[in-house]
Amino acid sequence: MAAENSKILGAELSETEEKLAAKIEALNLLQAENGKLQAEVSKLQVEKEFLDKQLASQNSKIEELEKSNQELIDDMAGTFEEGFKEALAQATCENPGIDTSNCDPGNQIVDGKVVPLDLGE
């Protein structure tokens, strides 16, 4: 009976050792996979930092372009207004006594009348 119990215990121990070896092998595979994933995470973090820097640079360039664009629009508006005033001065010079008091770059002619621009068009 003792020999039989010893045989059973030996078989159970052998089976347990096989299961343990399989679990250790699975653990080693998971650790190797984890190492690969950690390396990939590190690589992606470096790539993200690079892309974040590029995005910040692009945003800065966009802001500069928008500022430059607004300056050009302001310059064009000023030039238009100066030209309009010069044209009125010339019209007044050529036609003394003409009433230009209702003339303004912010007006338009509608049905033969000078009216404020309708910016909703």
Distance between the termini: 106 Å
Poorly predicted runs of 5 or more residues: none
Shape: rod-shaped
Element string (H = helix, E = strand): HEE
Q: What's the alpha carbon Rg, rounded to whole Å?
A: 42 Å
Mean pLDDT: 93
Number of strand elements: 2
Strand content: 5-15%
Number of domains: 1
The biggest beta sheet reads:
2 strands, antiparallel
Helix content: over 70%
Major β-sheet strand ordering: 1-2
Can you count the helices? 1
What structural class should be given to the helix and strand makeup?
mainly alpha
How would you describe what is shown here?
Helix content is 77%, strand content 7%. By secondary structure, it is mostly helical. It has one domain (2-116). It has a two-stranded antiparallel sheet. Strand 1 (107-110) and strand 2 (113-116) form a beta hairpin. The longest helix is centred in the middle third of the chain and has 93 residues, at 2-94. The relative contact order is 0.04. The model has no long low-confidence stretch (mean pLDDT 93).
Topology:
Layout: H1 2-94, E1 107-110, E2 113-116
Antiparallel strand pairs: 1-2
